[in-house]
């Protein structure tokens, strides 16, 4: 079903400013790359600040402007600034918003690093930023991805970088997760 002209205009009004901002974020991340060898922690922290602003804007589009409802129920909360590796049975795009909501509530939104498909590096605007920010881009082939994963976790383990990581999708041959306590609802 095609979108009405009004819906298309609304989409442009929401996404064009964000896309321009994303381009600026990509430029800022690119300017940080030469410093990465000498000051890796400084670059990680600076790229996390940039990431926080980009992901917060995405959350605002989804939750505020699109009136999505994100319900998180748990008998415990992640402490502020607590590192976490989140394993989710990724089923749809709304999963990202749920994980980002939890990360935002714990002050870790800018520290989110997704295990993303290697092919995403070719997506205009987004791909370069993912790579420059230090997102683990994987092919789902262990022999090809081993070095990338070692590099990603080296900062977390050796340099004690705070991080919130989530896989991009479930491993092959997994069954859907049973209905749980956390849900996202996109407006219809």
Automatic annotation (TrEMBL):
Transmembrane keyword on record: yes
Task: Supply the alphabetized keyword list.
Answer: Membrane, Transmembrane, Transmembrane helix
Q: Which GO terms describe its molecular function?
A: 1-acylglycerol-3-phosphate O-acyltransferase activity
SMART domains cross-referenced by the UniProt entry:
PlsC (SM00563)
InterPro entries in alphabetical order: Plipid/glycerol_acylTrfase
Name of the protein in question: Phospholipid/glycerol acyltransferase domain-containing protein
According to the entry, every stretch annotated as the Phospholipid/glycerol acyltransferase domain falls at 84-187
Q: Where is this region: Disordered?
A: 163-188
Regions of biased composition (Low complexity) lie at 176-188
- Where, by residue number, does the polypeptide cross the bilayer? 12-32
Q: Name one Pfam family in it.
A: Acyltransferase
The record's GO CC annotations read:
endomembrane system
Please tell me the species this chain comes from.
Answer: Lophium mytilinum
Top-level taxonomic group: Eukaryota
């Amino acid at each position: 079903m095609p979108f009405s002209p009004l819906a298309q205009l609304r989409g442009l009004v929401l996404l064009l400013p964000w896309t321009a901002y994303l381009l600026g974020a990509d430029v800022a991340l690119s300017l940080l790359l030469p410093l990465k060898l000498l000051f890796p922690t400084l670059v990680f922290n600076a790229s996390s600040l940039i990431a926080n602003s980009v992901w917060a804007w995405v959350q605002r589009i989804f939750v505020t402007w699109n009136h999505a409802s994100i319900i998180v129920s748990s008998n415990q909360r992640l402490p502020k600034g607590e590192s976490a590796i989140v394993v989710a049975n990724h089923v749809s795009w709304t999963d990202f918003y749920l994980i980002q909501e939890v990360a935002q509530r714990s002050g870790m939104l800018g520290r989110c690093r997704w295990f993303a498909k290697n092919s995403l590096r070719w997506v205009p605007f987004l791909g370069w930023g993912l790579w420059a920010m230090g997102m683990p881009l994987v092919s789902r082939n262990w022999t090809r991805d081993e070095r990338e994963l070692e590099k990603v976790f080296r900062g977390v383990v050796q340099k004690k970088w705070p991080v919130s990581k989530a896989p991009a999708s479930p491993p092959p041959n997994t069954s859907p997760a049973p209905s749980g306590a956390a849900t996202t609802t996109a407006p219809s």
